[in-house]
């Protein structure tokens, strides 16, 4: 059963009583809240996601509630610990999404995690490591409307002992001008409400395509690492970068490289081994996607390109 | 205690650290080493890598080290080269990849 199949009345009742639990790739979360707009917001963003059994032991239990002494303010707790306090109620949904990021990024150290968007086609994945402003999410949102499957907008998840990437498809967080860019680029994309006034400007969440959610257990083979660099009006340029440099930059974008110690170094080295590494500078989304399509298609046709 | 002066570097006998560094390279004149003790990862060029390899073979004095590295690179040992190796050793010492072998009495 999926979240969208729960009637609104039942949804709110669940959120207020036993909690609403659902799966996100290998993870599961439970939301408890009495706030109708929060329950409805989650139901919109996670409409295609499978519900978890009520007795599931979840990775994180999230409480969203009004503050007792400041009724206009909201607090978000994860497993009983405050994540945010004194929130403006109008910003609860974007902050809840960032809370979900924290749940995914800071907890499961059984995985190796890079801060990267990941998309896949024909079983082979492109990793797009980058920080805020790099164009990572915009590029990711564009690619998944041009035939690529979303694995994640935020995290490349690798299980030690396996080199493959695990999907964690979640809503794609778009900021400021990238919201309009994606609305024009992919008119069929479903975006949630725009939330102005967050610490990151205006935020809107693009729903992950249903096929990406349905294939949330299909792993992908890492094949390319592309460091995006968005610059207004910049011509599109793709530069191959040395693997040692790529490793250092990827390590810099890891959430838990230091936690894994030598094993992290070996996992990251193995990842670099398997990938061609590029830096992509772009100022136009169509051109950037065309560039990625070109090198990935050429590589797909060349037998030698299959070698790690 | 780390050596901070080039002049000290020139007088010292150098050795690699333990436990051994973990190496990876992809044949592009770039080398990556992981230092298990510090948990730090370093990106090295060919000269730095050559210096570390030499010292992993055993403790070496500055003059012998510069001679060996210059020999591999096919260049003469001159003042400029010695200065660059001395600076490099000071740097590698500061990040914990090499150390001075202290005399024992």
What secondary-structure arrangement, pairings included, does this model have?
The complex is a heterodimer of chains A (308) and B (105).
Chain A: H1 8-16, E1 20-24, E2 27-33, H2 36-45, E3 60-66, E4 73-78, E5 81-88, H3 92-106, E6 112-121, E7 124-129, H4 136-143, E8 149-152, E9 155-158, E10 165-166, E11 172-175, H5 177-185, E12 191-198, E13 201-206, H6 210-214, E14 221-230, E15 237-240, H7 243-252, H8 257-274, E16 276-282, H9 285-301
Parallel strand pairs in A: 2-3, 7-14, 14-16
Antiparallel strand pairs in A: 1-2, 3-4, 4-5, 6-7, 6-8, 6-9, 9-10, 11-13, 12-13, 15-16
Helix pairs in contact in A: 1-2, 4-9, 7-8
Chain B: H1 6-11, E1 13-16, E2 22-25, E3 31-35, E4 40-44, H2 46-57, E5 60-61, H3 62-73, H4 79-94, E6 98-100
Antiparallel strand pairs in B: 1-5, 1-6, 2-3, 3-4
**How would you describe the shape of chain B?**
globular
Helix content of chain B: 40-55%
Q: Based on DSSP secondary structure assignment, what is the total number of beta strands of chain B?
A: 6
Helix content of chain A: 25-40%
**Low-pLDDT windows of residues of chain A:** 301-308
Give the domain tally of chain A.
Answer: 2
Indicate the CATH class of chain B. Answer: Alpha Beta
Classification by helices and strands of chain B: alpha+beta
| Number of helical elements of chain B | 4
Q: What is the CATH topology descriptor of chain B? A: Outer Surface Protein A, domain 3
The tally of helices of chain A reads 9
Q: What distance separates the N and C termini of chain A?
A: 40 Å
How does the major sheet of chain A shape up?
A: 8 strands, mixed
Segments of chain B where pLDDT lies below 50 for 5+ residues? none
Give the percentage of residues in beta strands of chain B.
Answer: 15-25%
What is the spatial order of strands in the main beta sheet of chain B?
A: 5-1-6
Order of helices and strands of chain A: HEEHEEEHEEHEEEEHEEHEEHHEH
Structural class of chain A: alpha+beta
Radius of gyration of chain B: 13 Å
The number of distinct structural domains of chain B comes to: 1
